[in-house]
Amino acid sequence: MDIAKVIVDVPVRSTDRPFDYSIPEDLRVWTEVGSRVAVPFGHRTVQGFVVSLEYGDVQAVKGIKPIQEVLDLVPPLSPELVELADWMSERYACRRISALQAMLPTALKGKAERLISLGEEPDSAPQGDTLFPDEEFFPVFPGMDRVERAIIEFVRRGGEVTMKQLTRAFPDEAETIKFMLRRGNLQEVQFIKDKMGKKKLKAVDLAMEPETAREALNSMSARSARQKEVLSFLIDMEAVLPMPLKDVLAALQVAAGTVKGLEDKGLIEITEVEVYRDPYRGRDFKPSEPLPLTAEQSAVYGAVSRAVDEQRHEVFLLHGVTGSGKTEIYLQTIRRCIDQGRQAVVLVPEISLTPQMVERFKGRFGSGVAVMHSRLSSGERYDEWRKIREGKAMVAVGARSAIFAPFTNLGLIIMDEEHETSYKQEENPRYHARDVAVRRASRCDAVVILGSATPSLESYYAARSQSDESFAPGLLEMPSRALGNELPAVEIVDMREELKEGNRSMFSRKLHAALQERLDRGEQTVLLLNRRGFSTFVMCRSCGYVAGCPECDISLTYHARSSNLRCHYCGHAEPSPDTCPECGSEHIRFFGTGTQRVEEELGKLFPGMRVIRMDVDTTTEKGSHEKLLGQFRDKKADVLLGTQMVAKGLDFPDVTLVGVITADSALNLPDFRAAEKTFQLLTQVAGRAGRHTLPGEVLIQSYTPDHYSIIHAGKHDYHSFVREELKHRKALHYPPYCRLILVTLSHEQMPIALRMAENFAKTIEGKARQRRWFGSMDKLTADGLDLLGPVASPLPRLKGRYRFQCMVKWRGEIDAIGLVREVAEELEDSLRDPVLQISIDVDPQMLM
Ligand SMILES: Nc1ncnc2c1ncn2[C@@H]1O[C@H](COP(=O)(O)OP(=O)(O)OP(=O)(O)O)[C@@H](O)[C@H]1O
Ligand SMILES: [Zn+2]
Ligand SMILES: [Zn+2]
C-alpha cells in the first residue's frame, strides 16, 4: 500500500472528506484502516484516522505529503467501525471526524509517546521453560521463536522501552513486534505512565485502637459535634479502614476541614494510598447460575437463541413488565453467544449502571466483563476498553458509548430500558445508540434485543407496523412477573382534594398513613420526586420578580448548600438575595420542591425516620450511588428518596411502598413526549414495589389525576396508553408518524442570527418545492416535508449567543437529512463567519 486516505481533525465542514498521504517505508507495517496518525495539514500537524489504503504511484500525486507518525501500535478502530462512522455521518448529518472521535475512549484522544512493556501473564503460561530454565522468561509461549524471545528479553531488561528503541534494536522485525502486540505478549502502556500516572488517593485511618478512640470521643466537647460525628463514623467503619477521604466526606456531608481538625488532634491519620484502576477489582461477586426459565421466559429465549445460533441478524423488541425477568433472558442469551466464541455488548442507561446491574453480569461471567461508564476515570475507561480490544473481555456492559466497543466478532447487542432518553447523545455527533446498534448488528450478523417494560412509541410502532425495512423488530411480550407475584396495586391521590380539605403539606393523608405503616412494620419505602419540569427558582412574592441568568434568559436555580443561585446552562453564579432587587420586599424565597425539602419535611413528620436521599447532589462522588443503594439494601434506612434515579432497575425485596410525590410536574412541559415520559416514569417506579414475597402498594399524588398517562400507569396498562397516545401523535403529526430534524442557528448578534434562520427556512422551502416535497404532511402516506419556524429557541440566549430554530417534519423515502445538511453547508460557506453556528439534530429527543 502506498497511499493512505485520512480523515483529519480540522473543525471545518469543508475538510470532511479523506485526504491523501503517502506512507513512508518504515510506517507501512503499522498503517492500517483504523490507525490514528499524525499528518501535516497546512502549516500544522493534525491528528487523523486512516479510512482506506490504496496502491498508487505516489510520485504522480502532486504535493502529496507523508504520514508523520502512527500514534498507536494496534489501531484503535477496526475497519467495521470506520465504516460505521461513514454511516453515522450521513444518518446524523455530522462530520466524519466527530463520529470517529466519539468511538474512542477519552484517554486516546490526546497525543502520547508510545511505550512498550511486557504483557500480562497469560493464564496458560507454561511454568518452566526448558531452554532457559533459570530465567524468569515471561510471557513465553511454547511456540515462541528465538527472535520473539530476544524481543521479550530486550523489553524485560528495559522495563519499558520506547518504540524507537525497540525498532532500532530489531530493525527488520516490525511484523513480529506487531504480532506480539496483538497476541498480548507486549503491550502499550503510554497512558498509564505518561498521562495519568499512578493513581493515589487520600485515605483516612484511626490513629489508635478503636477502644481508645471511643474514649477520646466521649471526652470531646459538644462543640465539636461534626468532628465527633466523623470520629464515631470511623470507629463504626473500623473494619474497612483506611477509607478514602472523599467517601467519608460524601457519607457524612462534612467539610475536609472537619476531618483535618481530627488529624490535628492526633486522633486520626490521613495518608496517601495507591489504587489500582480496575474499579471492580478485589470485589467478590457472588457467582450466579442460570435460573430455570418460566414458561414466558422460555418462549422468548427460544426465539432469541435461535437467531443467535443461526448467526443471523435480527432485532427483537422485548416488552416485559417490571419484574418479568428480562435480565435473566439477557444473561442466558449472552452465555449462548459467548459459547459460540462471539462477543456481546450490553447497553444500560447511565443511571442504571448500579452495582446491582454490574453484579449480575460479573456474577455470571466473572472478569470476562468489561464495564464502561462515565464515572470511571479516563485511565480506568482506557483499561476496560483495552481489555475489549485485546480480546480479554467477551462482554462489555456500559452506557451509550459502549455501542462502539471494539469487538471484532460481535454476536449480540442488548439494550436494556430501550426507551431511555440517555441513549441519545445531546452533543455532536447527535447519535442514538439504538440506531447505531441496529446498524452495527446488521453488518455483523448479530442479534439485537431491545428490552423495556415501557418501550418507546417509536420502537413499539415499528414492531407493530413492520413498515420500515431497516427497523422492524420482532415483538416479544412477557406480561407476568417471573416470581409469579402480582403487579402492585396503584392508587391515585387527588391532591386538589387534599388542599380543599385543608391539607397544605406535600404529603397526602393517605401517603402519610402508608409511610407510618411501613415504619411500624419495618418495611421499606421508595419515594420519587419527579423533578422534571420543576425548578427551584427564587421568586418575590410581593412583586413576582424572578432571578434570572443575565446570559441565558432562564431562571437561576437555588443551591441550598452554598446558598447561592446558579445557571444550569452556563454556570453563572451569584449570591441569593435577602431582599428583592426590584421592590425591596423581604418576601423573597426559593420556590419549588427539591429533594432536600422533602427530606426536611419527612424529618419533621416522622422523627427518627432514616432517609437516604439520592439526587445529583448526593451522587456526584464516584461510587456514591453504589454506596447509598448498598446502605438501603442493608436496611440501614427506611426510605429511599430521590429523583428519576430511584425509578429504574432496582430490585429490593423489602420495598412494599412506592410513593410519587408529584406525578404531573412534567406533563406541562413544551415537549410532545411529555405524556409518554410521565407514563414511563410512573410505570417504572411503580414496578419497584412488592417484587418478592411481600405485596406492594403504590400511591401516586397528582393534581391532574384524570390525565390518560396517569390513569393508564395506575392500571399498568401499556397497551391502552399506547393506543391513546398514538391517536394524539397521528392527529398532530408527530413521531412515529413522521420524523423530525431540529436545526438551531446561533450567533452573537441577534439580527444576523435571525436573518440566517429566515434564510435557512426559505432555502429549504424552495428546494423542497423544486423536488415536489413540500407541504404534503396532511396525507399520511405521502413523501413530504414541512417546516416550522424560525422561532426563538426555548433557550433564546445561551452563552452569549442568540438562538433560533427551525423544525423540519418529514416522512417517506425522501432524503430530508441530506437536504438539511446541504443547505446548512451552503449557508456556512456563503457567510464565512466562524461565529455562526448551525447545529443539526436528527430525530431530536430534547425539544426544550
Ligand atoms: N426464571 C426465574 N426463576 C426465578 N426467579 C427469577 C427468574 N427470572 C427472574 N427471576 C427473579 O425475578 C426478579 C425480577 O427479575 P428482573 O430484575 O430480571 O426483572 P426485569 O424484567 O429486569 O425487571 P425491571 O424491568 O423491573 O428491571 C429478580 O429477583 C430475579 O432474580
Ligand atoms: Zn419584589
Ligand atoms: Zn447562564
TrEMBL record:
GO cellular component, one term: primosome complex
Sorted UniProt keywords: ATP-binding, DNA replication, DNA-binding, Helicase, Hydrolase, Isomerase, Metal-binding, Nucleotide-binding, Primosome, Zinc
Ranges where the Helicase C-terminal domain occurs: 575-729
Positions contributing to Zn(2+) 1 binding: 540, 543, 580, 583
Cofactor entry: Zn(2+)
Protein origin, superkingdom: Bacteria
The record's free-text note on cofactor binding: Binds 2 zinc ions per subunit.
InterPro entries: DEAD/DEAH_box_helicase_dom, Helicase_ATP-bd, Helicase_C-like, P-loop_NTPase, PriA, PriA_3primeBD, PriA_3primeBD_sf, PriA_C
Alphabetized GO MF terms: 3'-5' DNA helicase activity; ATP binding; ATP hydrolysis activity; DNA binding; zinc ion binding
This protein's record includes keyword Heme: no
Annotated Helicase ATP-binding domain residues: 307-473
Residues holding Zn(2+) 2: 549, 552, 567, 570
Catalytic activity line of the entry: Couples ATP hydrolysis with the unwinding of duplex DNA by translocating in the 3'-5' direction; ATP + H2O = ADP + phosphate + H(+)
GO biological process, one term: double-strand break repair
Enzyme Commission no: 5.6.2.4
Subunit structure: Component of the replication restart primosome.
Function: Initiates the restart of stalled replication forks, which reloads the replicative helicase on sites other than the origin of replication. Recognizes and binds to abandoned replication forks and remodels them to uncover a helicase loading site. Promotes assembly of the primosome at these replication forks.
Record-linked NCBIfam families: priA (TIGR00595), PRK05580.1-3 (NF004066)
Name by which UniProt lists this protein: Replication restart protein PriA
Species per Swiss-Prot/TrEMBL record: Paenibacillus stellifer
Gene: priA
